[in-house]
Amino acid sequence: MKIYSKDKKSLILSIKIGLLILSLVLVTIGMYKEETHLVLNKGIRICLECVGIG
């Protein structure tokens, strides 16, 4: 098991926080553009096709 130095731990934490912020920004943009309905409809269609109904 490798023991990371404090610099590597802080770098990893910074990357995690950056990715979290980026994902929240992208989700917010998608909600602002009202794409949630489109994503839900596609998910329902894919699910129904897997079951064999759609």
Any descriptors?
single chain; 54 residues; 2 helices; 80% helix; elongated
Explain this structure.
With 54 residues, the protein is mostly helical. It is built from two helices and no strands. The chain is elongated and about 55 Å long.
Largest sheet: none
Q: How much strand content do the residues show?
A: under 5%
Q: Compute the gyration radius: what is it? A: 19 Å
Structural class of the secondary structure composition? mainly alpha
| Overall pLDDT level | 87
Globally, the shape reads elongated
Number of helices: 2
Proportion in helices: over 70%
Spans of at least 5 consecutive residues with low confidence: none
Order of helices and strands: HH
Distance between the termini: 49 Å
Annotation, overall tally of beta strands: 0
Lay out the secondary structure.
Elements: H1 6-32, H2 36-51
Summary?
By secondary structure, the protein is mostly helical.
